[in-house]
Design goal:
It comes from Flavonifractor plautii. The chain contains 12 helices and 16 strands. It folds into 2 domains: 1-118 and 270-364, Isopropylmalate Dehydrogenase, CATH 3.40.718.10; 128-265, 3-Layer(aba) Sandwich (Isopropylmalate Dehydrogenase), CATH 3.40.718.10. Strand 10 (194-199), helix 7 and strand 11 form a beta-alpha-beta unit. It has a 10-stranded mixed sheet with strand order 2-1-3-14-13-6-7-12-10-11, with helices on both faces. A two-stranded antiparallel sheet has the order 4-5. A two-stranded antiparallel sheet has the order 8-9. Helix 10 packs antiparallel against helix 11 and helix 11 (321-336) crosses helix 12 (354-364). It is of the alpha/beta class.
Length: 365
Amino acid sequence: MEKRIAVLRGDGIGPEVVNESIKVLERVAQKFGHTFHYYDIIGGVAGLEAYGDALRPQDYELGRSCDSILFGSVGDPRKYTFTGANGTKKYPSRKEAAVKALASFRRGMELFANIRPAKVYPQLIQASPLKDTVARELDLIVLRENTAGIFYAGKYRKEIGGELTACDECVYTWSQIERHARCAFDLAMGRKKHVTMVNKPNAMETGVLWQTVYEKVAEEYPEVHYETMLIDGCAARLVSRPGYFDVIAAENMFGDILSDLANSAAGSMGIAGSGDIGSEGKGLYECAGGSAPDIAGQNIANPIAEILSAALMLRLSFHMTVEADAIEAAIVKVLDDGYRTGDIMTPGGKRLSCSDMGDAISEAI
């Protein structure tokens, strides 16, 4: 099978971890008889420096035309300030422009479903802040709505009646929620058949609409146990009884918070893969831990999250289940053999660089 993959390496450690993902993908292609064609896109702060644009229109169209996008994290806070003759000046618009590379693909391609698996590997259970008996139960997916809500609606900060006032709107339509709900139930059908929709209907009208739409869609999935839960109650249960959950479905803001909480409870953002997919099956796949510019160029970043994101791409967009399983099994074997990067180092572990970890996982496939 042939697939076209757009590659945006991004900023900070992005190029390093993306390179290791491609190394693993090439091993998969060799072993299973596939051909992956890669098309480079320069974006984020790197795009601003190269072209004066975080994502040029022609690069957006190239990414959109491919079967999926392998994405390194964007942003570099070291480059949001400039020291001139009159002192240091901040340029928040530069930061906003860097985010454009990600937001443009998400909204333009309608990648409405952000899928964030969170799982504790037994080999890394000591890295979790939870008790061992609690942590070992953690194996869930946070499904975050990705293209609407408070991140994209109207907002302002201005003076009203002599006082500085700010407002952020949160807007959702029936169809936006419905497609999210179908994705949640479809995911649950392939897992433990349990969907928990998280919101705040006692305080938000959008929460009432989410509850109404989800209840309607749930009728089409009688095999799935469906429930609603308030966001605060979900956060508390996520750290006290994580094994209770299977698929947690949430609007944009709540999903953003809960997905980071779940991955942190698992022990490290360095093992947190992520995928944004749309109705056509195309997706954007990136590690969830950020660009970490403070360690960029040192070959010490953990590439496992980006490699897991590549496995998600194979599973969700390319329907290569066996190949995705092979990558995930290789990661387990490497961890079983005691290999670690610095962020997940355990007593007696064998420390590897970013590139060495990529080699080890590739060789284990």
